[in-house]
């Protein structure tokens, strides 16, 4: 092995630090570019939505103009038709003609008023719809922005958890309304109450000598025997196959519902792990938490560490050791809370010893090399 001088070690440390700073800057630059691209995409999508809304509004205006033109054409056609009919009629006299003219003028005025009122109502309705559409579009854009901000907040800051309300017990004990046998004081001074009379039933009957449950049982047995006699051989075989399938299904369900102590590690389900944590009072918070240890054999420890644990007499890991050791073996940080004497120190030291055993041993030539190798770096 080559032993470095202090200047070489400082140069290597500075170089490593510069590489780390460069990597951090690259990651920050990539994150900034992603955010800019995300914001640009959102602005582009908003512009496209505005364009589509403007196009739809123009189409609606064109359709309204066409509708107005159609109404005008129909009115003109009606006027022409009315003029033709009036010309074809016999002119009876001046009074009748003047009367007709007056009536026609009244009708025209009333119709023009109606048309104007209808057009005014349509115009107001279209303006109202346009306003409602604009307000609705603004609300939709606001909702989209709120959803986007909420998604970013949950992604980078984490969502808020709802606190459960704990209900207070109003009555710890239930009030019993019945009399207790010890509260009966009549046995102390009256002999009549010492031998109470009980109703004698005839045979096994509960109502006038008839037992309803016994009758139901006899009736069901009668119908079962009758159906058994009427069944053919094929139906009996089908019934046997059905019962065998039901038994097989029940057996499989009973096999799957075994306790976690009766299963192998590869047969454990999420429900079994949940029951395991409940049995040992283990509660966890965080993501990608590894499964706890069931025993020392499944931990995958080196032989020297495992032999020392067995020699000391740790037969079973404690709850804090069951969950903390797998996390420590993954070189991850953990905050563990447990009682005094529950094995927190061993839960910290066992992953440390496993890591130390994985480091190659150091073989120095002389004492000076050993001292120079362990000089601190400032």
UniProtKB/TrEMBL annotation:
Please name the source species: Cercopithifilaria johnstoni
List its EC numbers. 3.6.4.13
Q: Which stretches does UniProt call biased (Basic and acidic residues)? A: 18-82, 122-153
Which positions fall inside the DEAD-box RNA helicase Q domain? Answer: 294-322
A GO term (biological process) for this protein?
A: mRNA processing
A UniProt-annotated Pfam family: DDX23
- The protein's name in its UniProt record: RNA helicase
Ranges for the region named Disordered are: 18-167
Q: What class of enzyme is it?
A: hydrolase
A GO MF term: ATP binding
- Keyword list, A-Z: ATP-binding, Helicase, Hydrolase, mRNA processing, Nucleotide-binding
Q: Which reaction does it catalyse?
A: ATP + H2O = ADP + phosphate + H(+)
* Biased composition annotated in UniProt, kind: Basic residues: 96-121
Motif range for Q motif?
A: 294-322
UniProt entry tagged with the keyword Transport: no
Do the record's keywords include Translocase? no
Q: Lineage from the top down?
A: Eukaryota, Metazoa, Ecdysozoa, Nematoda, Chromadorea
